Amino acid sequence: MSRAKRAALSVAVVAMYVAHQDVWFWRTARPLVFGVLPAGLAYHAFYCLAAAVLMWVLTSVAWPGHLAPDEDAR
Amino acid sequence: MIPALIVFAYLGVVLYIGVFAFRGARGAGAEDYFLAGRALGPAVFLLSLFGTNMTAFTILGSAGHAFANGILTFGLMASSSALIIPLTLFFVGTRLWALGRRHGFITPVQMFRDRWECGHIGTAIFAVQAALLVPYIVIGVMGGGTALRAISGGVVPYWLGGAIVALVVMSYVFFGGMRGTAWVNAFQTVLFLSFGAIALVVIGRGLGGFSTAMETLMASPATAPLLTRERSSPLVFLSYTFIPLSTIAFPHIGIFCLTARRMGQFRPTVICYPLCILAIWLPCTFLGVAANAMTGVPRIADKLEARTTLAAAPSSMEADERAALRREAAGDDVILVMLEQYAPLWLAGMLGAGIMAAVMASDSQILALSTMFTEDVFAFYGGKERFGEAVQVQTGRLFVVLVTTAAYIVALKAPQNIFDIAVQYAFSGFAALAPLLVAALFWRRSTKWGALAVTLWTAGAVLYTARVPGALAWNGLLPVVPMTIISALLMMVVSLVTRPPSARTIAKYGWPVAHA
Fold it and tell me: What's B46's domain CATH number?
């Protein structure tokens, strides 16, 4: 994996970690997303979806195939 | 009683899967009993790994925590886990799997002993891991007692519910080993993943939609803060992102990583993990919060009244009285109460079975303790050589019985609610042990003395915080943060001033010797 890719993935992981600390929705329940989900809860629900996307990118771009070379050969 | 009968039928099915469906492996060796022959397929690996990590507090504790603390619960434990746990599986789990496959390790301690060329220090790590794992097992038994009591409307008392759950879990772990446990876990995961969505729809329909409930909560100054996080601090929120580090350090997860047939099986697991978290935690948190609006349900009204009384209680109130109020206000059974109110009896029973599925996740921990004891103590100190592999497996089974019995006795005596115990002891302690794995796998200069320092520090810190709650809290951060950071620093400093492992070991783990 190139240095640029490694750096981009590292930034993405750190950004994702920072995004968990959503102080901007700290004291407000509105808007109610879909009419029922308070803003802070909806944010973290979407955060889980974003985490899944990040994991898909990581496993696609940075899969540690060298740990199981036989598997790669199959 | 119909829901209870359905739950008992479910327990019978679980027992059948665990005990009888995999008797083909009878008489097989230690690797087969403890690791399912390192041959689990991708679906069972994903479902079982997720199920293994979801315990009683996933459904009961999370809803109870949300009932008292609002939407904060989801960000604290669910979304932080959705990022950290798959990351650790991706970086650490895959490496553990590869080393286990290459060198035949069955437990993390075997890897530590080999990696750091140590014997008794490995035993110290085993002892601390085992001591921290027991409270986690207790949660399962407590959850079983709470759930069966609630589902049967009090007909099955807490002590009997806990005993039934402990007996069922003990039986299929005893007979089925890792293969039986993994299949039961996979079945249970499918059940409790379906539970959330169904419970949400049923309760929502019973209530006539959740919009009114949310507006009611928002309109009252007493409940409006439950829809925000204003009662908590961002530093506490940040602290909780350290808790999921515990997952990969839990021995049952480390051991489970070794059961995959191929490393590629980690790929779907890592990607789907955040989605599974979302599927189970969002409904439970949401329902826990919404329960605050159900003042027309007598048992929920009683809880709310107890909470109000507790909040207004003078500081002179007796500790016993305060504890009784706290128990009355606890919302661990709040979802069950809502189901009782809004779901038809047969459906409440099916959903009760879904709850039992999450509650009974202590099976993997019991098996892990047994695996660790037989491999890290019995086999390491010559038992396997002296008595043979068959006796080793029987010893593991005996250990399963002893551990389950001990956990049951503790569950009968333990006064605190599920969530508190889990966080206070097991999660913080294992998060502080996480630097062991990271150092062993990623830092060639790490040493056995660094590992010992981390282990002793973790044991001391957990004991200290258990005796003096919040003692290690630092500048608004929870104790888990300084505990983990100090662990990492100890590993670095002590390793740098002590002699590294031999060049042969460094090379064995894939690092260039010249730079060691």
Answer: 1.20.1730.10
